[in-house]
Predict the 3D structure of the following.
Amino acid sequence: MQTAWWPWLKRGLTLAFFALVTWLVVSQARAIEWKQVLDALRDYPPGALLGAVALAAASYLLYSCFDLIGRLYTGHRLPAPTVMLVTAVSYAFNLNLGSWVGGVAFRYRLYSRLGLSPGTVTRVMSLSMLANWMGYMLLAGAVFAFQPPTLPDNWSVGATGLRWIGAALLGIAAAYVGLCALSTTRSFDVHGHSIELPSLPMALVQLAMGASNWLLMSGIIFVLLQQQVEFTAVISVLLLAAIAGVITHVPANLGVLEAVFVALLSHVVAAPALLAALVAYRVVYYLVPLALAGTAFLALELHARKLQNKAT
């Protein structure tokens, strides 16, 4: 009985949430003076942009190391620079086109053409995704539990509810670490592929790398807002916007990110200044890396073709 109605309920809840976010985007967009946004972008200090570019580069460098965990875990022999390039390219496409197109499809194509088996690619991606989302849960859990953002009065989840959510996220992160440390069952089947639990040190590295990358992303927006908002507030709002984007499946989190930031921080920073910072963030962290990733993707394709020609 549950299998009959649960998919429909899940779709209904997703559509309801998407409708709510759409309404929020439209209502916020109508209230914004877009001329002021353009004026704020024109007056942006070069120092803030340079700081944002440096943090974006650090974030991509860190994320490009995520698949090195999988390289160590699986023992495949692709060179570390090649793995880092594949990861960075996939990350840029993931941010702009969504996880299935960027994070999954691009990794499978590039790694397969470079000689890795589908099972190895699955294990590499699993470790990388766990690093990202377990790091998210650790950081979001700590922020929501101990210093939750100020939410609008009409939101159904208040500070107390957010603290409980934070405690639950911390519990999930702790459970993962405990499972990696203590579980006697080390192997699980996922879509026909055997996935082994990482060791405790590797799990701790995953959490540290994932949380650090979310901190770097928050730092970009913090710098672009020119320190007008507390760093912990920027972190919490970005984390809320990220999960809203995942639920709505909007590519590049387009509109959702802006709506959440305006809804939660417009009482601290004027909406035009907020949107100017977020436009700059998209250029620095999404669009410029996407352009570079497109060039790198062509280079990887040519390299893979040369390897295949040598093999034949």
In short: Residues 271-311 form the longest helix (41 residues). Residues 46-68+78-311 form one domain. The chain has a mean pLDDT of 81.
